[in-house]
Amino acid sequence: MKRHWAFAALLLAGCGQGENASNGEGGGAGAALDQLAISKGLLPDPRNRSLAGRFETSSELGTDKFCAVAENDDGYRMGFLAVFGPESKCEGQGSAKLEGDSVVISLSGKESCSFTASYDGIVLRFPGSVPEGCTAYCSRNASMSGTRYYFVDPGDEAAKRTLGRFIEKLCD
Fold first, then answer.
1. Are strands 89-99 and 148-154 parallel, antiparallel or unpaired?
2. How far apart are CA 63 and CA 83, in angstroms?
């Protein structure tokens, strides 16, 4: 237990020591720690954020998946699968556009379904409420509302390997 306190004290003592900590860039010690975490690859760089890759969330009901393949500067071809047991799921494909901390998702192939999700570079979160047309992509008693997907494998090739249930490859 003493080691944890000593480490925390050492970490806090170094907060103001970074070259960016007191130069007015982004808020002092917190900004300096964020920059250090970004430089070490622990946090995503918000200036170079990409949606290309494979995302997953596992639970006792199955594995939810999202994938995106880059098509242009901020546009992506995407697919997703949200599972709620062996017979219950939401699954679809469409397009996504990255706009800062938001992702505008438009599903295609069934009814009109477009919504804005949030993305911090690590977790993609669908909104708690999606338009009525989105139910066409779900089986009975399933909803994509409020689902979340963690970034697990970057790049177009990882996205192209993402498998669905009825859609063989979600981002092929």
1. unpaired
2. 6
CB 141 within 8 A of CB 61: no
Interatomic CA distance for residues 172 and 92, integer angstroms: 12
CATH architecture entry for 50-160: Beta Barrel (2.40)
Residue 144 in contact with residue 133, Cβ under 8 Å? no
Whether the per-residue pLDDT at 87 is higher than 60: the answer is: yes
pLDDT 10s digits, 24-38: 455 677 767 756 665
Which 3 state secondary structure label does DSSP give 115?
strand
CB 65 within 8 A of CB 164: yes
Q: Tell me what pLDDT residue 13 has.
A: 47
Residue 141, CA atoms < 13 Å, CB-side half-sphere: 5
3-state SS class at 162 = coil
Report DSSP letters for 37-60, one per residue.
HHHTTSS--GGG----EEEEEEET
Q: What is the per-residue pLDDT across 107-158, written as a single tens digit (0 to 9) for each?
A: 999 999 999 999 988 899 999 999 999 999 999 989 999 999 999 999 999 9
Q: Which residue intervals of the chain bear CATH 2.40.128?
A: 50-160
